[in-house]
Amino acid sequence: MRDDDDHHDYDENEEEEQVESALAVGITNKQTYPDASRALEAEKKNGLDLFALIHMFKLDFYGGVRLINTARRLADEGLNATQIFQRLETDLSWQNDAAALTPIIEDDALIEFLDEIIHEDESDSPDVELQARLDSITQDVAQGSQAVRSALQQDESSTYSELERIAALVPQLLTDDDLIAEKESDSRSMASLKRDIIDARSQLLIIARRAQALLPSSSSSNMMKK
């Protein structure tokens, strides 16, 4: 019985070690994530887009190792995500730094994930239609925000035409975007574009509703009927 118990304990310890080794440690927050992809996505949201830097500089595996280790070193020095990104983007000395090949973290899951990022299918490029949709929504967000600000400040030079245009988008924004549903792909770039479009639509909906509220009641009623 003792041998069986010892074997059972060994299996449990081995499983725990495998789980721990699979966890990815974040760069700027030192949090652990179930996998490297989620850790890198979290860093991207904070302002440290390692995906972008890897593709921007067309890094090979060793270039990626230098990138991750340098990012971890800068984080240890107290720089935040945005500062690290700016440093890596402008000060390229890390690309030839032999010391940056030495891992900061043993068995770094982010480094183990590099091959998947670097050898990504070349066809995994941003979808033209989705990118155009995102650009259009982003422009509406900027123009709508300006129109709302001008109306709130009672800027005499502003007109209601832009408010009316933005407010008229509300019904459309309350329905799903058919283009997002049509585009089916597991590629990282398309998934990222879809998320960005959904976020931008949510932001635009808030602005469009503000525009509705600032319009005369008769205009707002007409917008709701359309």
Describe it:
The chain is mainly α and 226 residues long. The chain has two domains: 2-118, no CATH class; 128-225. Helices cover 67% and strands 2% of the residues. It contains 13 helices and two strands. It has helices spanning 2-22, 36-46, 50-56, 61-76, 81-90, 109-112, 114-118, 128-152, 161-167, 170-173, 178-182, 188-214, 217-225; strands at residues 24-25, 32-33. The protein has a two-stranded antiparallel ribbon. β1 and β2 (32-33) form a beta hairpin. α4 crosses α5 (81-90) and α8 packs parallel to α12. 23% of the residues are buried.
**How many helices in DSSP terms?**
13
The largest sheet has its strands arranged as 1-2
Poorly predicted regions: 6-21, 220-226
In angstroms, what is the radius of gyration? 24 Å
Q: Give the proportion of residues in helices.
A: 55-70%
End-to-end Cα distance, whole Å, is 77 Å
InterPro entries: Znf_C2H2_sf
Biased composition (Basic and acidic residues): 1-10
Region (Disordered): 1-21
Task: Give me some keywords for this one.
Znf_C2H2_sf; disordered C terminus; 2 domains; mainly alpha; two-stranded antiparallel sheet; 2 strands; 226 residues; 13 helices
Task: Give a short overview.
This protein has helices at residues 2-22, 36-46, 50-56, 61-76, 81-90, 109-112, 114-118, 128-152, 161-167, 170-173, 178-182, 188-214, 217-225, and strands at residues 24-25, 32-33.
